[in-house]
Specification:
- It contains 19 helices and 16 strands.
- Helix content is 49%, strand content 14%.
- Strand 3 (48-52), helix 3 (60-70) and strand 4 form a beta-alpha-beta unit.
- A five-stranded parallel beta sheet has the order 2-1-3-4-5, sandwiched between helices. A five-stranded parallel beta sheet has the order 7-10-13-6-14.
- The two termini are 63 Å apart.
- The chain has helices at residues 11-23, 34-43, 60-70, 85-93, 106-136, 147-159, 176-185, 204-212, 229-232, 248-260, 286-292, 297-303, 320-333, 343-351, 357-371, 384-390, 400-418, 423-430, 434-443, and strands at residues 3-7, 27-31, 48-52, 75-80, 98-101, 166-169, 194-198, 213-214, 226-227, 237-241, 262-263, 272-273, 277-282, 306-309, 340-341, 376-377.
- It folds into three domains: 3-127, Response regulator (Rossmann fold, 3-Layer(aba) Sandwich), CATH 3.40.50.2300; 137-311, Rossmann fold; 315-443, Helicase, Ruva Protein, domain 3, CATH 1.10.8.60.
- By secondary structure, it is an alpha/beta fold.
Length: 449
């Protein structure tokens, strides 16, 4: 229930508005002076205030300023006589939501209250969302305890508070955008926009418009003016992923922006100042592209003020267990259920090379958690390519059939051990009949477990 405070030095106004708002279902408090109103705001959670402007000794404008110091998000509607409209407009410049002219219609005020409370709700939701995003991308919440991850954390701690340009290297799927977001959301720009652009996903003509914007009529299809991400992210950060895919003409324009801190929309004649932190990423060695003549050397040095390399998953396998637990927690939050991984399945995950890195691991965990019929992920819930590769070392028979047979044998032995040798319990856990279990034991030559 929203809490509304009415402030007026006329008791009749307080009584009429209180009755009307209580009928609407609001919790209502009243005050006959600015000092009394401030005490209510300090001690109670007020969502919206309706205040007269002409009061003594503290008028409504002074009350507005004092209330905003206590709660910057409080919604304030001012009541004024016709002769004081300019004063009410001045109040809006100082943070008032709206004003009504006495005598006003109750329906008019009722609608203003409803809209004002909706605005407060949106502001609070946005603040909560920002807090969640900042927590999500806090570097303390990046998953991993390997030496490589500890070194990455240390670099982010040093780099985040600065405005230095950052160039992130790493294979596809290593989490380069996650690192970029961690840098932004742990910087002084955290409350400003973070705008990501994948340079490889857009043709050159569209990329220029996406970055710098365009004016109406600049090209076919430009029916209205459009702001580019540089303008949208002003005082925030831009993340240019796969920057190695950017063509030479766009590289020249980007270099000018980095040097002059100015942008010009496509089709426009005016330059515009911007204050943006640049974070770029690539899965290629840009120094090699410079040698090949496909990437500007001056832009390369502008971008690589602070180079950061994100190690591939195969080089930090000690992080796999933590990552698997993290992804299973995400699946549980999405309603998949509380899943765990059998030791045999974890062995498979640890034995795989992960060419797709963390993104591939996340997809595998999601697939396994979804397809798993029980609460334990077994090797048979994993993609066949993982089973085949994990069994390659020292094997003479590398056929998929042989690999699956070995994992099936290991899985049945594991279930029998958990059932303390009780074949009926083991058959139930496996979801097969007792005769089927005996056939499996004979076929797979399982004599001890």
């Amino acid at each position: 229930m929203a809490k509304i405070l009415i402030v007026d030095d006329h008791q009749s106004i307080l009584d009429v508005l209180s009755i009307m708002l209580k009928r609407e279902g609001y919790d209502v408090a009243t005050a006959t002076s600015g000092e009394e109103a401030l005490e209510v705001v300090r001690t109670d959670s007020i969502d919206l205030t309706i205040s007269d402007i002409k009061m003594m000794p503290m008028d409504g404008i002074a009350l507005l300023e004092r209330m905003k110091e206590i709660d910057s998000e409080i919604v304030v509607i001012m009541m004024t006589a016709y002769a004081s409209i300019q004063t009410a407009i001045d109040a809006m410049k100082k943070g008032a939501y709206e004003y009504v002219i006495k005598p006003f219609k109750m329906d008019e005020l009722r609608l203003l209250v409803q809209r004002g409370l909706e605005q407060r709700s949106i502001i609070q939701e946005n603040r909560s969302l920002k807090q969640q995003i900042q927590q999500k991308y806090s570097f303390e919440h990046l998953v991993g305890t390997s030496k490589q991850m500890e070194e990455l954390f240390a670099v982010i701690r040093k780099v985040a508070p600065t405005d230095s340009t950052v160039l992130i290297y790493g294979e596809s799927g290593t989490g380069k955008e996650l690192v970029a977001r961690a840098i932004h959301y742990n910087s002084k720009r955290r409350d400003k926009p973070f705008e990501p652009i994948n340079c490889a996903a857009l043709p050159e003509s569209l990329l220029e418009s996406e970055l710098f914007g365009h004016v109406k009529g600049a090209f076919t299809g430009a029916y209205v003016d459009k702001e580019g991400v540089f303008a949208v992210a002003d005082k925030g950060s831009i993340f240019l992923d796969e920057i190695s895919a950017m063509g030479m003409p766009m590289q020249s324009k980007l270099l000018r922006v980095l040097q002059e801190k100015e942008i010009k929309r496509v089709g426009d004649t005016k330059q515009r100042k911007v204050n943006v932190r640049m974070i770029a990423a690539t899965n290629e060695k840009l120094s090699e592209r410079v040698k090949q003549g496909t990437f500007r050397e001056d832009l390369f040095y502008r971008l690589s003020v602070i180079p950061i390399e994100v190690a591939p998953l195969r080089d930090k396998k000690e992080d796999i267990l933590l990552l698997v637990r993290h992804f299973l927690n995400l699946q549980r939050e999405r309603g998949v259920g509380n899943k765990k991984v059998a030791p045999e399945a974890m062995d498979v995950l640890m034995g795989y090379a992960w060419p797709g890195n963390i993104r591939e691991l996340e997809n595998v965990v999601e697939r396994a958690a979804t397809l798993c019929e029980g609460d334990t992920i077994t090797p048979f819930d994993l993609p066949p390519r993982l089973l085949e590769e994990s069994a390659q070392s020292g094997r003479t028979d590398n056929t998929l059939k042989s690999v699956l047979r070995d994992h099936e044998r290991a899985h049945i032995r594991s279930i029998l051990r958990r059932a303390d040798g009780d074949k009926r319990k083991a058959a139930e856990a496996l979801g097969i009949s007792i005769p089927s279990l005996y056939r499996k034991l004979d076929l797979l030559a399982i004599k001890d477990f």
